[in-house]
TrEMBL record:
Name of the protein this chain belongs to: Troponin I type 1a (skeletal, slow)
Job description of the protein: Troponin I is the inhibitory subunit of troponin, the thin filament regulatory complex which confers calcium-sensitivity to striated muscle actomyosin ATPase activity.
Species assigned in the record: Seriola lalandi dorsalis
A Pfam family that the UniProt record links to this protein: Troponin
UniProt GO molecular function: actin binding
GO annotations of cellular component type: troponin complex
Organism classification: Eukaryota, Metazoa, Chordata, Craniata, Vertebrata
Family: Belongs to the troponin I family.
Basic and acidic residues bias: start-end ranges: 150-169
Length: 190
C-alpha cells in the first residue's frame, strides 16, 4: 500500500518554470554557437578565395597580356569543372552504394515495411489456378461432391405425428420413458 501512495505523491525533480528557463537558455546557447559557426565559415571562405584567387590588376596590362590572362583563367575554370564533375560522380556512386547497403541490411534483418493488405474476393478456382499455374485445369465445384438427398426419403424417415404432444411427453416421462429412449438408441446400432 505504501508503494502505491509514494508513487502518487511523487513530485517532479525540476519544476515547470525551471524546465522552461533551462530550455530557453539551451536555445539561446545553440543560437550563439550557430552564429559563431557561420562567421567562422565565412572567414574560411574569404581566406581560401584570397589564397586561390588573388585580386587582379588589369589597368596596367596590355591587350595581349589580358588575352593571356583570360586563357589562364579559362584553363583553371576547366580544371575546376573537371574536379567538380569527378567529385559529383563519386558522391552519386557513394549515395547509390549506401542505398543498396541499407536495402541489404533491411533484407537481412527481415524488417521491411509491409504494405497494408486489402481484402480481395477470389474464387477457389482462381486460387488453385494461381497456385498450380494455368496449365492445370482444376475446377473446384464443391457442390458436385455433396451427396444428394431427396426430400421424399427424408419425409419417409420422419413420420409426422398428428397426435397431441402432451401424450408423447407423458409416455416418455419417468423411468419407463428413459428405458424406451435407451432401447431406441441401442436398437439400430445392433
Amino acid at each position: 500500500m505504501s508503494l502505491i501512495v509514494s508513487s502518487i505523491q511523487r513530485k517532479p525533480k525540476i519544476s515547470a518554470s525551471r524546465k522552461l528557463m533551462l530550455k530557453s537558455l539551451m536555445v539561446a546557447k545553440a543560437k550563439e554557437e550557430l552564429e559563431q559557426e557561420i562567421l567562422v565559415k565565412e572567414e574560411e571562405k574569404h581566406r581560401y578565395l584570397a589564397e586561390r584567387a588573388p585580386p587582379l590588376n588589369t589597368s596596367t596590362l596590355s591587350l595581349g597580356q589580358l588575352q593571356d590572362l583570360c586563357r589562364e583563367l579559362h584553363a583553371k575554370i576547366d580544371v575546376v569543372d573537371e574536379e567538380r564533375y569527378d567529385i559529383e560522380a563519386k558522391v552519386m556512386l557513394n549515395t547509390r552504394e549506401i542505398k543498396d547497403l541499407n536495402i541489404k541490411v533491411l533484407d537481412l534483418r527481415g524488417k521491411f515495411k509491409r504494405p497494408n493488405l486489402r481484402r480481395v474476393r477470389v474464387s477457389a478456382d482462381a486460387i488453385l489456378r494461381s497456385l498450380l499455374g494455368s496449365k492445370h485445369k482444376v475446377s473446384m465445384d464443391l457442390r458436385a461432391n455433396l451427396k444428394s438427398v431427396k426430400k421424399e426419403d427424408a419425409e419417409k424417415k420422419r413420420p409426422v405425428e398428428d397426435s397431441d404432444w402432451r401424450k408423447n411427453v407423458e409416455a416418455m416421462s419417468g423411468m419407463e420413458g428413459r428405458k424406451k429412449m435407451f432401447d431406441a438408441a441401442k436398437g439400430p446400432a445392433q
